[in-house]
Amino acid sequence: MDLIRSLTSQPNAHLCPVHPTSVDEAPQPRVCRLKKRSNASQIFFDLVMSGSSLAPDRGSDGRYMNPNYKPLFYHQLVEDTPAGVAFRQRYWLRSYLGYPAIRTTLPNTTHFGLAALQHAGVAPRIITQNVDGLHHRSLGLSPRQRTDKILELHGSLHFVHCKHGHVVDRDLFQNWLSAANPQWKAFLDETERTGNKPRTNPDGDVAIEHLGTAYDSFIVPQCPSCMLEDRINSVHKPDVIFFGESIPNAIKTRSFEIVEETSRLLIIGTTLATYSAFRLLKHAVELHKPVLVLNVGPSRADTVEGIERIDIASGLIIRDVVRAVLGSSASLDPTIAHMLESGVVKPPVDDTLVQQAADPR
């Protein structure tokens, strides 16, 4: 059974054997076939697991492209100590400066290509590691709108909750931060006016060390709902999974159920570095589901038996693939046609330039 019926000839597209030693060993630039392993109906795929993100945070070998980037761990963010207060000041100031990019970033061609397949009912469900809400936007939904079409494995940046469970919209929380920190609001307005914006790290995190400014003057506001309950609480956390934090059981269970319900799986634009995603691949293989990994460079899937892989950037082929799969409906359905003409197109990030910027020596 064909998984991808036709790919436009691409010099960088290779179909890799199960245990590839080089992506050049078995080049087939036009056609990738996923063999029939079930009696499922003739469809392209019914589940996509997406990892293409707002801004690339890892290079082709899986390394963080900014070698100075140090992620914040869950226990650091929530601990009720002076150190925890300092960690939250650091996190929320950097997030405050980076959130405008999250709020205004548009979906790329891959987001819209997958949205077209969802709209057509060919790939009705997506499990995404992204936290930016761009899959929602490509479907014409608000990033805050819950839908069973998209399971956000690692949560969403568009919500914030306090340690007592009160949830607010991230836009509203941004307004709270602005009101509590007028000097930083003025700084942010100036960067927007001049276009001289600092580099954004993964998930909207902006470094300010080069400004020579300390974090300890930044005010993280109290939770208004807690104040109404006579509680003093400024421990806020975005609704995303931090390093060292476990995925909620309901999300974990649902992700396994979706894999079990699907007949085949496409994994696109991810190195599968996090075990929460990698175990879904393993589960699919254990269930003898056909699996195709579409990604540039090495990934954690490379040593897994029984899968196929194409080494190519999804944005280079996604439109042609969708048109080949959907046939005439790709042009006759106005929604699909619009989706296939939409999406931000950006050249790949040269991570050597990022390293030079981080270490100009």
Blueprint (SSEs and pairs):
Blueprint: E1 2-4, E2 15-16, E3 32-33, E4 47-50, H1 74-78, H2 82-104, H3 109-119, E5 125-128, H4 134-138, E6 150-152, E7 155-162, E8 167-169, H5 170-180, H6 182-194, E9 200-201, E10 205-206, H7 224-228, E11 236-240, H8 249-261, E12 265-268, H9 275-286, E13 291-295, E14 308-311, H10 318-326, H11 329-332, H12 334-339, H13 351-358
Parallel strand pairs: 4-5, 4-12, 5-6, 12-13, 13-14
Antiparallel strand pairs: 1-3, 2-14, 7-8, 7-11, 9-10
Helix pairs in contact: 2-5, 3-10, 8-9
Any overview of this molecule?
The chain is α/β, with parallel strands linked by helices and about 350 residues long. It has a single domain (about 1-360), classed as TPP-binding domain (Rossmann fold, 3-Layer(aba) Sandwich). The protein is about 35% helix and about 15% strand. It has 13 helices and 14 strands. The strands form four sheets. Strands 2-14-13-12-4-5-6 form a seven-stranded mixed sheet, with helices on one face. The longest helix has 23 residues, at about 80-105. It is globular, with a radius of gyration of 22 Å. It starts with a strand and ends with a helix. The relative contact order is 0.21. The model is unreliable at about 5-45 and about 350-360 (pLDDT under 50).
For this structure, what is the CATH homologous superfamily? TPP-binding domain
Helix content: 25-40%
| Side-by-side strand order of the widest sheet | 2-14-13-12-4-5-6
Q: What is the CATH domain class?
A: Alpha Beta
What would the average pLDDT be, to the nearest integer? 81
CA-based gyration radius? 22 Å
In the residues, how many domains can be counted?
1
Strand-residue fraction?
5-15%
Distance between the termini: 53 Å
| Unreliable parts | 3-44, 348-361
- Strand tally: 14
Shape: globular
CATH architecture title:
3-Layer(aba) Sandwich
Strand-pairing-aware structural class? alpha/beta
From the 3D structure, determine the CATH topology: Rossmann fold
Largest sheet: 7 strands, mixed
